[in-house]
Amino acid sequence: MARLAVKLILLDADDRVLLIHAKDPKSQSKCWYPVGGGVEPGESLQSAAAREAHEETGLVDLPVGTPVWRRDHRYEFDGQAFDVHEEWLLHRVEHFSPAPAALSEYETRTILGFRWWTSQELLTTTETIFPPQLGQLLAEVPGER
After folding, report:
1. CA 77, CA 30: separation in Å to the nearest integer?
2. pLDDT one-digit tens code per residue, 14-38
3. Domains of the chain (ranges, CATH numbers)
4. 92, burial (CB in 10 Å: exposed 0-12, middle 13-18, buried 19+)
5. How far apart are CA 3 and CA 23, in angstroms?
6. CB–CB of 89/83 below 8 Å?
7. 96 Cβ neighbours under 8 A, 6+ residues apart
């Protein structure tokens, strides 16, 4: 059964999205992906989003997010396959420098850093972005540049 996950599109005033840079411990491949993670039993999407934002970036007082996408996805990381149902929330935030507050031991081993990306940068980069169509999805969000 797929695990429920929340993914955060953290957009600053310049419409840049914050992504996490990570390295797969098994394959050594590197990728960029949005903040987010599993929703715990009894936890709302908004509560999970606020918890994940704080744990992974140090952000407190996360504004309420607007649902923008959902998808069912299977991915592999560290030699294991995961089935997830992702609910994507868009959050407008002030630009900040991420400082993780409570990474798991696993995240500490895999996270290399953070970067704010424009949708145009996502569309033209040769780096691996998850999901691969993120730049196009961001360009299509109503009210975004």
Report:
1. 11
2. 999 999 999 999 999 999 999 999 9
3. 3-140 (3.90.79.10)
4. middle
5. 22
6. no
7. 57, 58, 59
